[in-house]
């Protein structure tokens, strides 16, 4: 049986996907440079290679040795604001790295690829929910890089190579990924003070890992003035990748699909939800808008539902926030094992 190469497997989404793939009996090779991911999040049985996606010789060797026939490419820098400040860093890894990886995969005979794209390719869409056919006008380097790679995939898939099956791909445009594995053990990890994603930041404030948090802009043209996002649970997103792999294995053609629930929640809604599930009333202040943030991003997910048999299991903001908070409590306990977590303390 052939194997799937998962880049960025030791990261947040990669660790949830790897766990699902291994649980489903799939053979996986994980490639990760551990710049953001952690080896310990991966199942012990999984083949792991520490290295760079841009290292074509390494990728070629993995493909040969493990008879890889499908790629799931997740490895990328992921912070919009940082991409605005350091575009070179983003384009070097997310675009040039992806080109090297894809070329090595094509040269090695890999014919199926699933790519982690982003709703950031839309920029600030004028319609909500946004469908895949909407104009793609990214407003930050992160989104531009994701769109470049979508175009690269399209061009590489369109090129005819004598005697070879063409590349086929599914690009999954993630909306806001959040939450943690029910039952614990997996979730999003960030160095102290370095988290940037809303639900994680709010959960850190709830555990006391940070003193409070800021709302980046309360003067947007939305119902409560704060940005609106479509939060998808990481395990539902991981399941969409398995759907994409199966779709391609069954001969499916190139597809670009939104991954979200089709419902928006404002930054204020999310903070209120984290306060409710944690029982913690942490300080929240309004700060200036963050560069690169569009006011509203909500997915039209009809194409995803049509393309594969994908039924969300965790479409509930409260459940997402609760799982993220419970994970944050586990992290807090690990950091200070002698102290009981806020959740445990509150539970008595
Ligand atoms: N946000 C915020 N305070 C924070 C973190 C995020 O107000 O500490 C806002 C951010 O400005 C954006 C939304 O929450 O409007 C979602 O941001 P996040 O970084 O989670 O995801 P993104 O939409 O950038 O991928």
Quick take:
The chain is α/β, with parallel strands linked by helices.
**What percent of the residues sit in helical stretches (DSSP H or I)?**
25-40%
How many strand segments?
Answer: 14
Low-pLDDT windows of residues: 344-348
Most strands sheet: 7 strands, parallel
Task: Please report the distance between the alpha carbons of the first and last residues.
Answer: 50 Å
Globally, the shape reads globular
Oligomer: single chain
Bound molecules: uridine-5'-diphosphate
Mean pLDDT: 93
How big is the Rg?
Answer: 20 Å
Helix count, DSSP H or I runs of 4 or more residues: 11
* Spatial sequence of strands, sheet with the most strands: 3-2-1-4-5-6-11
Strand content: 15-25%
Report the order of strands and helices: EHEEHEHHEHEEHEEEHEEHEEHHH
Helix/sheet category? alpha/beta
């Amino acid at each position: 049986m052939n194997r799937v190469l998962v880049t960025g497997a030791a990261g947040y989404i990669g660790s949830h996907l790897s766990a699902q793939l291994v649980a489903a009996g799939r053979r996986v090779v994980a490639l990760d440079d551990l710049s953001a991911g952690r080896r310990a999040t991966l199942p012990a049985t999984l083949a792991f290679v520490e290295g760079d996606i841009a290292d074509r010789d390494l990728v070629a060797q993995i493909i040969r040795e493990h008879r890889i026939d499908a790629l799931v490419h997740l490895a990328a820098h992921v912070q919009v604001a940082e991409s605005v400040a350091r575009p070179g860093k983003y384009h070097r890894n997310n675009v040039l790295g992806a080109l090297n990886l894809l070329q090595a995969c094509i040269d090695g005979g890999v014919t199926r690829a699933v790519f982690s794209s982003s709703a950031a390719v839309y920029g600030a869409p004028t319609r909500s929910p946004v469908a895949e056919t909407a104009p793609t006008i990214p407003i930050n380097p992160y989104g531009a890089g994701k769109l470049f790679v979508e175009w690269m995939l399209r061009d590489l898939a369109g090129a005819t190579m004598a005697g070879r099956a063409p590349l086929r791909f599914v690009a999954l445009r993630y909306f806001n990924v959040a939450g943690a594995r029910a039952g614990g053990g997996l979730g999003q990890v960030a160095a102290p003070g370095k988290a940037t994603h809303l639900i994680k930041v709010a959960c850190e404030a709830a555990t006391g890992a940070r003193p409070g948090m800021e709302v980046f802009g309360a003067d947007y043209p939305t119902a409560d003035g704060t940005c609106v996002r479509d939060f998808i649970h990481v395990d539902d997103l991981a399941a969409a990748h398995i759907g994409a792999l199966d779709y391609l294995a069954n001969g499916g053609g190139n597809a670009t699909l939104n991954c979200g629930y089709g419902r928006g929640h404002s930054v204020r809604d999310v903070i209120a939800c984290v306060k409710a599930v944690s029982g913690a009333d942490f300080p929240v202040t309004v700060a200036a808008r963050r560069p690169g943030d569009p006011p509203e991003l909500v997915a039209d997910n009809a194409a995803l539902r049509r393309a594969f048999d994908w039924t969300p299991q965790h479409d509930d903001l409260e459940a997402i926030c609760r799982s993220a908070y419970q994970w944050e409590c586990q992290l807090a306990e690990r950091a200070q094992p002698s102290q009981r977590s806020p959740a445990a303390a509150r539970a008595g």
